[in-house]
Amino acid sequence: MRVAILTGGGDCPGLNAVIRAVTKSLIHHGNAEVLGIADGFEGLMGENPRVKPLAWDEVSGILHQGGTILGTSNSANPLRDAATLEQTGRNIQALGLDVVVAIGGDGTMSLAHGLEKVGLRCVGVPKTIDNDIANCERSFGFDTAVATVTEGLRRIESTAMSHHRVMIVETMGRHAGWLALESGIAGAADIILLPEIDYDLQAVIDVCRAREERQRYTIICIGEGAKESGASQTVRERVAHSPDPVRLGGVGHVLRERLQPHLKSEVRTTVLGHVQRGGDPTPFDRVLATRFGHHAAQLVIRGQFGRMVTLQGGEITSVEISAVANVQRTIALDHSLLVMARDIGISLGEAGPGG
């Protein structure tokens, strides 16, 4: 069997752990030849596909490393036009690939599902620091990102307390608020603003004013997809031809401009940016990524293609890739973490008593 592995979308702690687990499992138990595709689907789109053999030694010593040894791309789109799709299909046939293990988020799964029309058989592995993949309780990379943002919040708090400021920390997460929510709770944020709940500006002002009279500082954790009630999301840029052309970012600065005229405290914004995606994975993510990679190899060996590995009920299982393509997992408004946050006095920017 000839199996290829690719990593698509943004980089993420734990990718190398998956590559290692897939490769070693397939070599040890599947007697397979394993190839690595360079830079995600981009490596399959040109006239000369870019691949390299992945032997046992090639993937040894990479478990703890952040990033991906294969490279990745969050703009490569083999479905963008008929000519690109045909060229991708020819490359898949020329390489003699039996199946591709695609490691990525909902965008990567959508592309893998779409490439079925040119004969690509695929097994998916969910990857995202946003934790927004449908039918998956937790994706690897998320735990590491939460730890990184939490440390950032704690460092910001010491400055906020010393200078009596309102400090806004903007996280990634796109249209899902998981990263802002869990990091905000872990980092003792006073206000957490999420894409799922449009915030009321006056409610945020009221909390900051109340804290000006008591603690004299406020920490706000805001997801990049959050927006004020009646407003639109803050778009940083649009990337033509990308499967996900809209790039969010900058909402923290928008909120600072809206808050400052109403407060005595100085308001500052920190956008954590790509520091959230980098670095070595936590032990939890190393184990989860290895479990995902091993299960993906088992799906390949058993010939169960068109499925994505997932975590449900604490157990590793799989679902049809079609069930996660073009779908995002957001926070339900009755989620227990939201209930808990309100009960312990964290404001979610909601109008009414308590904010």
From the alpha carbons, calculate the radius of gyration and give it in angstroms.
22 Å
Order of helices and strands: EHEEHEHEHEHEHEEEHEHEEH
Helix fraction bin: 25-40%
Q: Looking at the chains present, what oligomeric state does this protein adopt?
A: single chain
Number of strands: 13
How confident overall, as mean pLDDT? 94
Unreliable stretches:
none
User: What's the main sheet like?
Assistant: 7 strands, mixed
The 3D shape can be described as elongated
Our measurement of the CA-to-CA distance between the termini, rounded to an integer number of angstroms, reads: 58 Å
Strand content: 15-25%
Summing up helix and strand content along with how strands pair, one would put the structural category as alpha/beta
What's the tally of helices? Answer: 9
Question: How does this model look, in words?
Answer:
The chain is α/β, with parallel strands linked by helices and 355 residues long. Helix content is 34%, strand content 18%. The strands form three sheets. It has a seven-stranded mixed sheet, with helices on both faces. Strands 7-8-6-11 form a four-stranded parallel sheet, sandwiched between helices. A two-stranded antiparallel ribbon has the order 9-10. A hairpin with a 2-residue loop joins strand 12 (307-312) and strand 13. Helix 4 (142-163) packs across helix 5. The model has no long low-confidence stretch (mean pLDDT 94).
Q: Secondary-structure blueprint of this entry?
A:
Blueprint: E1 2-7, H1 15-30, E2 33-37, E3 51-53, H2 82-95, E4 99-104, H3 106-114, E5 122-126, H4 142-163, E6 166-171, H5 178-186, E7 191-193, H6 201-213, E8 218-223, E9 235-238, E10 246-248, H7 251-259, E11 267-271, H8 283-301, E12 307-312, E13 315-320, H9 336-343
Parallel strand pairs: 1-2, 1-4, 4-5, 5-12, 6-8, 6-11, 7-8
Antiparallel strand pairs: 2-3, 9-10, 12-13
Helix pairs in contact: 1-8, 4-5
